[in-house]
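Side project, low priority. Logging it here so it doesn't get lost.
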Amino acid sequence: MKRLALLALGMVILAGGAYAVEPAYTGPYGNVEEPALRPYKWAVEGVKGLFWHSGKSVQEGNLKFPVLGTVELGRGIRKGSVEMGESLYRGAIFSALPEKKHEYRNLHAANERIEENRAAREIGEAIPTVMLFTLFGYPVQKLVDRYPARDEMEVAVIKQEKAEKREAQRVAREAKLEADPGALVREAQIRYVGDRILIGDGKTEKTPKEHRGNLLKLAKTRQK
């Protein structure tokens, strides 16, 4: 009970400190930013950064050395954990949120300093790697770094091919939306309901009459 009381008191103190912070922006509908929400928003940024860097490290490691490259997860957790800690600190002092949409994907001041210090970098990567993969994990991580199955050129080619594939999918998606604005909505509906209901464009006989229109209104009508 005492812990809950102390936590509540801490949140009240934090929220009270937000009154001295000026809003950073006014939204498109005239809504002014609420500085008191910055600690929570920064916490979300930190969590996203933790998952992003962890996932990216596994992907990068497996590009260099399939399967064994998974040990680079420890490196990603180090980067993500540091980013999360820095985000929590920025939230505690009510810093303005980043304007860029995916800013959590970048490394910031604390990680940049660690990257410049070899001892700090090695210790920071060794601890989570050993915790995840036992004592053998760290030597394997160094092995992947020193003797990768694919060199930098091969990795770059694979990344380029994946980027081109994503771009082609994006272009095709935009072209499909331009040709038929309702196509993406119907695709989302089909993914959601599966084969439980027939979904068409609402104009053809492919969709039964009782399945057309607003499903929420249909449900309310049936309840009556």
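Brief comment: Helices lie at 2-17, 38-64, 73-92, 109-116, 118-146, 152-179, 183-193, 215-223.
Revisit when time allows.
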